Task: structure prediction
Amino acid sequence: MKHVTTVRVICALFFVMIYAACKHDPFPAPAPPSQVPVSGGSQVCSPDTVYFQNKVLPMIISNCAKSGCHDAASRQKGVILTSYASIMSTAGVRSGDASGSKIYKMITETDVDKRMPLRPNPALSAAQIQLVYTWIMQGAKNNACQDCDTAGTIRYSIHILPLLQNHCTGCHSGASPAAGLDLTIYNNVRTVALNGKLRGVTTWATGFPQMPRGGAKLSDCKQELIRKWIAAGATNN
Ligand code: HEC
Result:
């Protein structure tokens, strides 16, 4: 019981910090990160493994690394959620111990005024929280697998929608989507697909903002999925 009380006190102090001025110190020193190198995107995806580079990082960037929050420029509370290295050094990840990891505590906080992402951003879904949980419990590795295949017909429902959900809709959804563009709505995706913006922003072409904002460029394979889908008419297939 004493331990639980101590944890509560620590959590309470922590939340007070969140509301204090922006120039406070970062989170206390995190546990030593597990420095497992990226195992390479050529590895076949195992259904039992949560791969950081494929699922966790894009989701965190899209939901947490928005301007004013935890992108490299804003770095609220010293927390930068844009890469494996920055997450391991600033987000209090304790490999194998989700409930002891600050990032996990923040996304599962039951007080909606303290929970991350802060309102009015929506809470992460149960499935997204589960991704973070499993990734930490599996050792918080910097792992990746090959989850992209451009063979055959490219379908909106099977290829494009999950790609957008993973990399884009954390920012481009909700009451005030980034750039006024809600990418959870097919007709909006179709519009930017056909007017060249979708390709422009994802290939980082001159004259377009680079998307996903603050994150790494989509892989060549994912860019090819988008190119093929648009070339075939960007249908809701
Ligand atoms: C971290 C937040 C964030 C993520 C993730 C993100 N965007 Fe954006 N997006 C923005 C912001 C903010 C803008 C406005 C331009 C700027 O500030 O760079 C924007 C602008 C755009 C525009 C230009 C809209 C216009 O009318 O000019 C498109 C298209 C776009 N994003 C598509 C995407 C796609 C596709 C992805 C995923 C691959 C994505 N975005 C991921 C924040 C984000």
Observations:
- Residues 61-62, 65-66, 167-168, 170-172, 178-179, 181, 192, 197-198, 201-202, 209, 211-214, 218 surround heme C (CB under 6 Å).
- Residues 148 and 221 are 6 Å apart (CA to CA).
